[in-house]
Amino acid sequence: MKADQLQGYLARSAKDGRLDPFWLLTGSDAFLAVEAGDAIRAEARRQGYTDRQVLDMNASADWSRLTMAAADIGMFDDRKIVDVRLSTGNPGKNGAPAIVKYLDNPIDGVVTLITMPAPDWTVTKEAWWGALQRKATVVDCSPVERAQLPSWLKARLARHELVMSPETLDYFADMMEGNLFAAAQEIEKLSLLHPKGEITSEQLRQAVSSNARFDFDTLFESMRLGQADRIVRIIDGLEAQAEALPFLLAMLTAEIRSLIKLRTGYDNGQSRVTGVFATPSLQKAARRLTVKKLCGALSVCADIDRLVKGLPVPKRDSDPWIELKSVVLFLAS
After folding, report:
1. Burial environment of residue 93 by CB neighbours within 10 A (0 to 12, 13 to 18, 19 or more)
2. Strands 162-163, 197-198: parallel, antiparallel or unpaired by DSSP?
3. What is the Cα Rg of the chain in Å?
């Protein structure tokens, strides 16, 4: 289930007086993972799981501690939460079979909560991951995409009996993109200033400051899809976040080279190109952009690299961020 579905699921579990024995929280949004974990632990406490043990585990950990923690219930407690933090996402050679064995032998009165980052594709093929997917209740804590953010904000506002028009929600989403923690805080603030009813765009502007945060993947996805207006906002945000321009430039040039390979393959009648992970948006961009245009953008990236190193480049602005914005917009058009 998605993280925003968890509250409803827990409410139904509370009515039945039950709680699933195994939980897996996975995804790259730390705020959603923390909030989901808090919600599960709070419901567990309401149902009498008063004992709790936290295990920070990794590939070199002693995984026998997991079974011991589940079996070691305190004298005055008959229900326990075992809170496993697998921050590396890799249980190692000893941990993988230990997890499978542990899932095969649930203990009455023990709820186990495993928190870990989203796995890469190699992990998803492993037996322990398959066992977790089958036997645990999985809560997806992936970031909320921009297209879904207004709906997410609307649901959070509804908890406080607050509403916004679609236009105001869209503006709010622009202000909060990539920073759900700030969005939740701002909604709490709005609930104090305006306990119930509609929040107008003017009220929103007066009460809330922009807390949007962007990453490189968001920029490249917008470039592939030709979202020019969004690109300007993202690059301005990345500059304000003091992101490392050399690293961003290296990723951009790698992106352009992948597009050149893909477009060249398409021009030669190939449907698949070896060495390129062709997502739907990358394929769309490769069909839209010519090799000539991509090579021209690659040449501009070389000029930007010189600007970053403090070298003058004739006919280029001295600010590399301006030139970066120009080349990305060029690729988006």
Report:
1. exposed
2. parallel
3. 24
The vertex-247 CA angle with 325 and 313, nearest 5°, equals 55
pTM, 2 dp:
0.71
109: Cα within 13 Å, side-chain hemisphere: 13
177 CB neighbour count, 10 Å cutoff? 24
DSSP reduced 3-state for 89 = coil
Q: What whole-number distance in Å separates Cα of residue 85 and Cα of residue 52? A: 13
The predicted-structure confidence for 271-288, as pLDDT tens digits, reads as follows 888 888 888 899 999 999
Q: Reduced to 3 states, what is the DSSP secondary structure of residue 294? A: helix
Look up residue 226 and give its amino acid. G
pLDDT given at position 233:
87
Reference 78, options 40, 113, 108; nearest CA is: 108
Residue 204: phi and psi, rounded to 5, are: -65, -45
Assess contact for 216 and 298: CB atoms under 8 A. no
Length of the chain counted residue by residue:
333
Return the residue matching tokens 């990305």: 328
Give the mean pLDDT of the chain.
90
**pLDDT value for 77:** 64
Rounded (5°) CA angle 265-269-275: 30
* DSSP single-letter state for residue 3: G
The C-alpha atoms of residue 154 and residue 166 are separated, in whole angstroms, by 9
What pLDDT digit, counting tens, does each position of 75-126 carry?
556 789 999 999 888 898 999 999 999 999 888 889 999 999 988 888 888 9
What are the beta bridge partners of residue 56? 85
Please, which residues bridge with residue 162 across strands? 197
Among residues 136, 81, 84, the alpha carbon closest in space to that of 109 is found at 81
Lookup: tokens for 138: 């999985």
Cα gap 7→247, rounded to integer Å? 39
Q: CA separation (Å) from 127 to 67, 83, 141, 280? A: 19, 21, 22, 29
